[in-house]
Amino acid sequence: MTSSQPSSRHLVVAAGQLGPVHVGDSRESVIERMCILLDEAASRKVKLVVFPELALTTFFPRYLLDDQELKSYFDVDDPTQGGIAQAPRVKRLFDHARSHAIDICVGYAERAVQPDGSHVDYNTSVYYSADAGKVVGKYRKVHLPGAVEPYTAAGAYQQLEKRYFRPGDLGFPAFRAPGLIDGALKKKDGVTDPAQSKLRGDPIIGILICNDRRWAEGWRVYGLQGTEIVCCGYNTTAFATKATGEMVDMSAEEAEAEVLLHHKLSCQGNSYMNACFSINVAKTGVEDGNPLVGGTIIVHPNGHIIQEAETKQDELVVAEIDLEDCRRGKEKTFAFEKHRRVEHYRMILDRAGAIEPELL
Amino acid sequence: MTSSQPSSRHLVVAAGQLGPVHVGDSRESVIERMCILLDEAASRKVKLVVFPELALTTFFPRYLLDDQELKSYFDVDDPTQGGIAQAPRVKRLFDHARSHAIDICVGYAERAVQPDGSHVDYNTSVYYSADAGKVVGKYRKVHLPGAVEPYTAAGAYQQLEKRYFRPGDLGFPAFRAPGLIDGALKKKDGVTDPAQSKLRGDPIIGILICNDRRWAEGWRVYGLQGTEIVCCGYNTTAFATKATGEMVDMSAEEAEAEVLLHHKLSCQGNSYMNACFSINVAKTGVEDGNPLVGGTIIVHPNGHIIQEAETKQDELVVAEIDLEDCRRGKEKTFAFEKHRRVEHYRMILDRAGAIEPELL
Questions:
Q1: What's the gap in Å between the CA of B358 and the closest CA on chain A?
Q2: CA dist., res. A179 & res. B339, Å (int)
């Protein structure tokens, strides 16, 4: 049940929080800001920087856009052209990260070129490994909030992610990031017993995007792959709306406090319940009059917040973590193989929506 | 998407927190304490009181017991004899609740008599409806913590639930509680459209027990049945142990703070993520030298704690709630039918334990 303690798996990570990106801000200007954060990260010995959802643009799903306007917010990801890391407008970001030997996880609006030349649009984050010199992990947002059709109530606040993006088609694929830590067990070492290699290889990473963090299913699928770090960028409005898009009747201060409560319960609760670190990073501040919450936090597998943003601007939030700290939860309370009873979970797959018990 | 607002669904509920129950304390003495809490509840117009896990006895899984000792902690539940509500030693509790027109949810060690006369032991809670005059909901703990074999490390703290109980065989069965609120829609009203009856019938209740509250799967299965109130009793040690049963190296104060953080993240996070109230009630204080945390809390569907215990003794923690408050979450952020993508959740059923990605 216990394991001999391997050498520690220390690592310095960071959330690269971004202040607002306004309509019309160029990719170049945003990437310049991100590169400045990477320079700071390098000086602080950071090995991984997580950037927000849709980091390169304003949060455009708040607007009803025509096809031409919409196109300007997307970046083309063409596998035959080297993918996003080689896309002309954004290549500089990845190259800069590599020059500092820093991994980055970054969100963008992906226009995915299909084999037949057509395209499909996703809300995507990729994980770029400086050691590998390429993208080693890709995630497309599964839990798209909002609606396809604009809300029609007077004063309604729009959330059109379901209109602009297709739900992610990649599931929740955990992956390993090479070169992040020293001394990771490798395939060439020839260890074939999973118990012997458990939590000893290159770090296991999962990606979530914004609203996904409220859905225990995504976290659990990552947990079931032994994930040690979840990277989650977000754009979250600082106020609360109803199903109609209308504002909930509460003060701005109350609403922001509630939004932050929900954010923290989701990130801290799910990190704890899956015994993983999570790096949760905001695009924040006021984008063209639209307030976004901050609350960038790095969470420990025991559920504590270990580092938190102090501003609503561009800010590097840095923490030194030890991946060994995932072990206590994964070996005891959340030793899934000992405690989970999958025969009682069937409803999780058998129905998407709730079905109430019959009336009495 | 929106619904016309029905009349409010107000209800006064309570957690019947219990202080310690020591080895040798009689059922009679414990039930007397519970009846005193029910008397207070009646005077405060409470309609539902939730009592802790294993409320009638000390938390005996901390001891290695022989069959004879073990037997003394179980209550026989024989369906041919009217079940637990008619069991001679505990009948008074249910009768007293009914005399006050109060529903109770109560945990006990169930020795379930089988058709062939043999028995199976479970860690169980039942929901007794005063209106129906019988048990209308039963739950047997699915996520049993601890181990079958005693820990052998020096100073190890035992947790033998896996030795003494079989994992629950009933899944997570939500049920409706008649008579709790006025004006509930009934089958005889002839409404056949689920959208019309949604959240308008008798309250939908689910039961969890202690460690279950840390497992998002149970909460979600209840959420997928439209559950409005989760009743969760617990006995939780006020210190932290490793997978070996040995103490984690931290001060008593730090350990208790961490245990309470995990408790609150679990109850608040999962209530929020399923848009339901939860009534989380401790057996607390020091049982024969063994400290249990308090932290009895009633949680709102928006994740707030709306009422919290002030002591580590017998204490009635009362809150007036409005089941209508479940509606905002269930109709927007957690409108499961709009947002869940079950095709990406298969791993939740396909594997019990974690399988890591291949080594690089």
A1: 8
A2: 36
